[in-house]
Amino acid sequence: DQQVKQNSPSLSVQEGRISILNCDYTNSMFDYFLWYKKYPAEGPTFLISISSIKDKNEDGRFTVFLNKSAKHLSLHIVPSQPGDSAVYFCAATGTNAGKSTFGDGTTLTVKP
Amino acid sequence: DAGITQSPRYKITETGRQVTLMCHQTWSHSYMFWYRQDLGHGLRLIYYSAAADITDKGEVPDGYVVSRSKTENFPLTLESATRSQTSVYFCASSRLQETQYFGPGTRLLVL
Asked: Above pLDDT 90, what percent of chain B?
């Protein structure tokens, strides 16, 4: 039973437009959510996070929205740039859990 | 150098051989993790450790052994490698419920 799902394996957008990546979770105990970005041949790197006490967190071009009632979060990238082309992983964790559960990732391609 | 490192970066081995993948971090993070990444499966947790001498199974622990005698090291051993263990392996570290910092990965091919 996959507790964190990213239902879109891939997404393609035009440079300058908005990219929206989605993530759903099933475990109500999750209270902290993170997005990681991964380029080929490199390890994932942290992008942005959100606590369950918030519904939005913004960092430059990146904004994460959390809808707890729907158990859904999304990552918005505005404006999208070719350098944003990467695999994006959604992850979720519970208080004091230590470990995170990852989704399968969404490959974003931003076309110039 | 500061950070998290993995060695070797690439490894080719044969079925039945023992292989050890090394992971070293310099931040004194309490938590360390081993993941494998296969096409279509994202990152799957193999084992993790909350502190030295404390380890726990993740999602896919079968066929793997870990140890953590020192905070900074977390080796992963495949006792008898199988073709299904061909994958990219990532080590990560973190402080409790915080961002995980990943190593560059080890690409393992089991023939």
From this structure: 87
